[in-house]
Amino acid sequence: MHATRLACRQNGHGRPVLLVHGFPFHGGQWDAITPTLARHSHVIAPDLRGFGGSALGPGCEALTQSMDAHADDLAALLESLGVREPVTLVGFSMGGYVALSFFRRHRSRVRALALCNTRAIADTAEVANGRATMAARALLEGPAPVIESMLPRLLAPDTLSTRPAVVRSVRALMESAPRAGIAASLRGMAARVDSTSLLPHLDVPTLVVVGEHDAISSPAEMRGIAAAIPRCRVIELPRCGHMSTHEAPEGLASALDAFVREL
Ligand code: MLT
């Protein structure tokens, strides 16, 4: 595959913090978190390949964008930005899958890890088949079917019924996702490896962040992830579903900021 230069937002000065967004979002997912972190850190929030300002490349409708390929893009980005110091790597959901791959492939670049609303296991055959079907639909119809199937699971029931501005902003974040980028990352997520056996080898300070009502990466599952990681702390965000960046931005920002400043 051709090399690509990822689009990214950079803010602040200090030790580098690399924020990796989820599916099907872009680096703007972190906009409410960045100001707090940027008071003490150099915050880098890229658009993964196929999202936001990062092109998938011409003729890529049939592409599988693996989590490893996303991870290698991030390593190339750090190289091109001249960031030599190891980063605090923060991955949200799909960004967490990418973060685990990055740790496997670029260990020396990782100072610490924050795994937000994510999973360590691979897809079941049923979930992987569902992603293949959704990839085909997204290529034909754009992001609409992805939004309709994901939105009810991304947000806590209370958010869906009482916080229309949050619902609107999460929907807007997904509406801009390019169809080929959606399809390529769906296929990549479906093909990702199970990372459960990696967890005991995550030998860096690690923070696990979970939403109280997360229907995609449940508190019980994420506590299991945390229990398997040697130097790990867990934060549970109350009244929050999967979308911690939007449902609990202050709690998430202060948890990440405190974590980074203690390192
Ligand atoms: C995400 O938020 O990145 C997705 O829910 C991840 C997934 O579909 O597994």
Summarize the structure.
The chain is α/β, with parallel strands linked by helices and 263 residues long.
Can you walk me through this structure?
- The chain is of the alpha/beta class and 263 residues long.
- The protein has 11 helices and 7 strands.
- It has a 7-stranded mixed beta sheet with strand order 1-3-2-4-5-6-7, with helices on both faces.
- Helix 9 (219-228) links the parallel strand 6 (206-211) and strand 7 (232-237).
- The protein is globular, with a radius of gyration of 17 Å.
Helix content: 40-55%
How do the SSEs run, as a string of H and E?
EEHEHEHEHHHHHEHEHH
Proportion of residues in β-strands: 15-25%
Helical segment count: 11
Shape: globular
Major sheet summary line:
7 strands, mixed
Order of adjacent strands in the largest pleated sheet: 1-3-2-4-5-6-7
| Spans where pLDDT lies below 50 across 5 or more residues | none
What structural class results from the helix and strand content?
alpha/beta
- List all distinct small molecules, including ions and cofactors, that are bound in this structure: D-malate
Radius of gyration: 17 Å
